[in-house]
Amino acid sequence: MTSLRRPHAAVLGGGALGLTLALRLAQRGEAVTLFERETEPGGLAAGFRPAPELPGGGPYLDRFYHHLFRSDTSILALVEEMGLGAHLRWGSPTNMVLWRGKFWQPYSATGLLRFLPLPLLDRVRMGAVLALLKAWPNERPFEGHTAARWLRRAMGAKGFGILWEPLLRAKFGARADDIAMPWFWSRIHCRSFSLGYLDLGHQALYDRMVAEITRLGGTVRLGTSVDEAHLVGEGADGGQWAVAWRDRDGVAGTSRFDRVASTLPVRVTARVVRGLPEAWVARHDWGEAYGAHCLVLSLDRPLLPHGAYWLNVNDPGYPFLVVVEHTNYAPSSLYGGRHLVYLGNYHPMDHPIFGRDIESVKAEFLPALARVVPGFDASWVREAWMFRAPYAQPIVTREYAAHIPATRGPLPGLWIGSMFQVYPQDRGQNYSVALANRLALEMAADPAPGLAGVTRRGVL
Ligand SMILES: Cc1cc2nc3c(=O)[nH]c(=O)nc-3n(C[C@H](O)[C@H](O)[C@H](O)COP(=O)(O)OP(=O)(O)OC[C@H]3O[C@@H](n4cnc5c(N)ncnc54)[C@H](O)[C@@H]3O)c2cc1C
Prior knowledge:
By secondary structure, the protein is an alpha/beta fold. 30% of the residues lie in helices and 24% in strands. The chain has 13 helices and 20 strands. A seven-stranded mixed sheet has the order 8-7-16-17-18-15-19. It is globular. The protein binds flavin-adenine dinucleotide. The site of flavin-adenine dinucleotide (FAD) has 35 residues, from helix 1, strand 11, helix 9, strand 19 and helix 12.
């Protein structure tokens, strides 16, 4: 006899990945409950409202600078699907680097040719290497190489040392020399020069997805952290999952599900899910991640010269690796005339900066900003916000790929879809959305342990 009971899935995590997965499962008629620790959906791509006096509270601004590339086809399709296509703007803002106190634009062919700190032959050589990486269709020849060694050899020590080594060092700290060359290839190959942004902020996309999941009968439990998940009840009916959760009011409970899909960092999944085989834990509870830190400033006037949007700070001795003037890309009129600037960096998750308050961070960052932009004065700052997030940047070493787990977990009914499975591309919303789309198809093709007898008609 067949049952018409719909399988009930728990999705752990409400970032791009968890929300897309919950949406796809709900669209297939599956009962789904998503648990998200924070009170807003969106994870690393969540936003805040910098101009609350505007009608409706004004647009969101991402807490951490985000843009989309033309190659980000999965998230672009999702933006259209959620009815936000008209809010997607494209542009080619100015990207620059600070080198020995001067601003340069070496990130285009003509800009590189004018990059005087490098001898002409080195400029041509670097241009040829970057063109090769752009054209090369896959990462295969680069597997087994580190970016530092491969690039130093290919483009010369001087060019690598000025333009790329400081970026690897800033992003990956002590691990910079170990970063896999396929990761670097994908940064050059997969990214378009044209950048897109949602003028309502990515938070608007994630809010819409919550509304759509809910409309389809799913449940989104914001502000609810999952402490533990384990498989219970073997036998004729198969296993079920017990998910122990706790909300912000201290209310705790345990709910039963037919299957669990964890979109948390893999190492967090290894702690939350009980009963994982030792061999799986030994192989996949592995690797490092850095946290992200951002001070966002609202200024009364533009900051960066040349209308620059993005400034890599390649000079040593600064407490931030990048200055992103968002309103040199999106108009400041969107935000009530505010000029919005991010000062961002990555650090090991136990770095003292994650414990500091905003005033102490400002006291360090603003004088440093005045060294980047002579003439900048702290009196230009009208408002400031500070954001930090753990598990924001996987450290993609040469061994990384060998430790990525399969999407089908090692226990019945357990599925794993995490930004930490994205390889060789750098993590990004697009890759989380694409992975979630694939995971939803895989889950649909595979009955939950407790639902082996459910008819396809009953499920879909
Ligand atoms: C500084 C910075 C710049 C970036 N720039 C870009 C960019 O320009 N373009 C781009 O597309 N991407 C960019 N990204 C990457 C992008 O933000 C991520 O790739 C994407 O948001 C990852 O989504 P996710 O759902 O896979 O993971 P996450 O967003 O990390 O979602 C995981 C979720 O799980 C929740 N969670 C954790 N533990 C628990 C628990 N125990 N119970 C319940 N919930 C839990 C977290 O709160 C989080 O919401 C950037 C990221 C950073 C940090």
